[in-house]
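Notebook B, p. 112. Complex prediction, attempt 2.
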Amino acid sequence: MRTRQFLKPRTVGRDVDRLVDALPKHNIGTQGYDPWGLNPDTAKITFTAVRWLYQNYFRVQAQGLEHIPGQGRLLIVGNHSGQLPMDGVMVSFAVANKSENARLPRSMIERWFPSVPFLGNWMNSVGGVIGDPKNCAKMLDREEAIVVFPEGIRGSGKPYRLRYQLQRFGHGFMHLAMEHNTPIVPVGVVGCEETMPSLVNVKPLARMLGMPYFPLAPLVPLPARVFLNFGKPMHFANDARNERDVEWRVEEVKDAIRDLIDAGIAQRKSIF
Amino acid sequence: MSQSNEPRPEAESEQQDSGAEQAASRKSAPRRKTPARRQTDSAPTKTKQAASGIGSGTRGKVLVTGAAGALAQHVIALLKENYDVVGVEFRGLQADYPDTVDYVVDFNQWPFEDVFREHGFMGIIHLGRIRFTQSTRNRRYSANVVGTARLLRLALKYGVEKVVALSTFHVYGADARNPSLIDEEYPMRAANLMPEVVDAVELENLFNIHLYKNPELNITILRPCNIAGPGINNEISRMLAQPVVPCLFGFSPLMQFIHVEDMAEAVMRSFERNHPGVYNVAPDDYVAYQDALQLAGCRRLFLPSVPPALARRSVRALGRYAPPDYLIDFFKYAVIIDGGLFARTFDFTPQHSLANLLGHYRAHK
């Protein structure tokens, strides 16, 4: 609290202050926290840095943001890459920074992050939530927008040679979308693969440190240009007869994401 | 504490005899078995008055266990408006007991049944539980689980109509993978994550078995978040009352607190409005642990958090100034429970804000 009180007046500009204040925050309690740990003051401090990264370092170009409604439950489903969850941060900021109907989507994070000192609390306080179906269901019931990467660590931890190749998608997001009558907005993320290209996953070291993977990669993200393409909302009725039906629907979403990735790669003139 | 509007001379004389017997037995029996520290100046009834139902306004007799506790004292104060109350305690030293305690008796000892024989209870509010820090694991198990099993057998035998039991949110266990807003269906993972608190989980299992096997007991189980406020002496309250409080470097889990008066009101509502089942009790308001410490006027003492073995060792080194090392994960990972079902079912809204609750500790420093 004292750190926040010290940092906020020294770092947060008026525009970021206004941006976060304007976002709908339905579930914040009297002490400035929602049930998942979101804290607007910490979000403001973080967004100050994220905005600089978004605009100046990764020079993000976002298209199709009009497909994100200003309210109501929503799943934003994308491809995961780049070792660090930078793609989630960029997607969330793009939606929060919209000129109209801005909102702060919550990002599903790996279950490993809360066990890391500082990182877990910080990610929670800027909108990260453990990727648990119960969490997701509760948030959808409270009309939140959620960023999901169904590839999980299979996507984020993959080596550079597998770039832009979608890994296996979990089916959990589709079950949630069907059961909670939630539209899915696909998003193709291009550029995050190049921010932290990994040559190999050093599995013994990862096991020793209790990490999901340990990439042999640059120590800091490289300044690759990032392209975000949001697709049209997809609706799925809750009438799947078996898991095979669900799998077909997941494939539909994957196809939509593949198209959006191809569009992003076509837009890109240079990697950096 | 037991009060009656109508004179019952026969019952009074029986009670006086009973008092003399109790006085005699107090001299000979071990301290824990001694009945009735309070000399009963009013007449307990032998006939059951509660038959007309819960919350009807008709007086009945209610057994409150853990009657020396701060929560029990608030509950008893509320109960006394409509019920005759008999307080039973099995913890601590007899000399410390407040007036709310009528009997000091171990649930596992034979004299406990005499309390049921003497009073026709219509309801039981079971608040008596040896806390994690109060005794050894075996003693806790014996008192909390085996003792409660006997309490429930006696409740069944003597036709009790309503049982409210106090559990704890600790049964969910603390883990990095816990979702937020844990609801009542979530597994009680504490048995797996921290075997030292297995008695709390077993206690719940016991009540759950009786909840479905003996529906006539109308059992309501309450799983509150951290109870705090004046008089409360649990782990978190003790720490909030300290000038310097340990916290793990890099961890400030989200927490929920409920004021003891609000919790007493929650117990009363669950007793009077008969909706058997399991309910979380927590406000829809949250605060990070380190923020809570600062609001309570505590200075933070940072302890190493990694590796976990070092964290546990440093917590043990602080002794009673820190939580027991097996509860350390509750100060690392958030365990946020969803009190929505209780709030909707019992039309319950806590009256005390977090600022008010934590301000109490700041004011007393």
